[in-house]
Amino acid sequence: MAPLFIKEFGLLTHAFDIGCTMAVGFNPGVLSIEFPENSFHKAVSDTMEAAFYRYVMPDSLWKLQSWLQVGKEKKRTEAWKAFDDILTHYISIQRHKSEKTMASSDEDDDFNFLICYLTGHEITGPTPKESLIRDNIVSFLLASVDSYSLTLTWFFYLISKTPMVEIKIRQEIKRHLSMEQVEGLQIPSNFNDLSKLTYLHAAFNETLRLFPPFPFELRICTKPDFLPSGHRVDRNTRVLIGIHAMGRMESLWGEDCYEFKPERWISEEGKLIRESPSKICAFLAGPRICPGKELSYLLMKATATAIIHNYNVHVLEGQNISPKNSVLYQMKKGFMVRVKNR
Ligand code: HEM
């Protein structure tokens, strides 16, 4: 097969298809080499950019922009309008479907957040008003889609620079996974076996250390308190958690802190070293730790093994890979690779 040039690698569209399937029960099928324009993606990107400017601009300035409806704030308003339209559409389709299912008392094996909300499932509780359903689903998609796809994108970027890591991942796949043919693609026949991929897990930990999808997080104190360091914080103090900076601190990770070395996560006995979530806090720590953490590793391993096992991925030379001004650690101009069948 002739090499295929893939614009921006397509991992975001793949993650969006998965996220929508979990959230609203529809696969929008935006993963396509034609890369059709997707209004939800654009809305996510504009929201994240506007959120970044809210961090760095004086409050009075972004509030003025919001009042005048100019600049990033205008884009943000348009993005929320797009979320509204898209979600209202999905809610109405799913509402119709759930009413039909209940009327016919057919067995329905659909399981997604939207259907849980609409049917008052015990997981989500009594059906809330539509605006709350919409906000929760948008939050879920914002929290899950980009974080997972960005980690995978940086992972492929990092292994393209360290071919030895890719070789070791291939050896591990060969040792632990049996593959089956599905629609022309070799994929793991038993997803439970993905937990045996210690080296791949370590490579994702290393990716999340160097390129956390949320490079910083903001917390605001509701009452006076002391940080573990002993520093006093007053009510309304803003605390910015430098997740990206922490992943590159010599005092935490040693002199080779800038190097991509999955080996640092593996003990002499070949076991995965479990660091405290307060040290590697890409998923944050404590009560607000990401509820999708374990699922993320599973999804990332499933996608990475399928790609690495079936294809050779070469990064196109001469790209300027630099981060975008956003609360997400995104590549400014995307990521161009050439994909060849193995
Ligand atoms: C590598 C992938 C991921 C990373 C690094 C990540 C990281 C995070 C972080 C840092 C937060 C906290 C945000 C905050 O409180 O300000 C968060 C929240 C959340 N994440 Fe993830 N996430 C990932 C993937 C996922 C996936 C795949 C799902 C869903 C299947 C998910 C679902 C959520 C939800 C629902 C929240 C909100 C929880 C709340 O409001 O307390 N995440 N995530």
UniProtKB/TrEMBL annotation:
Keywords: Heme, Iron, Metal-binding, Monooxygenase, Oxidoreductase. It comes from the Eukaryota. Signal peptide: none annotated. The keyword Oxidoreductase applies. The keyword Repressor does not apply. Gene3D superfamilies: Cytochrome P450. Its cofactor is heme. Belongs to the cytochrome P450 family. This is Cytochrome P450.
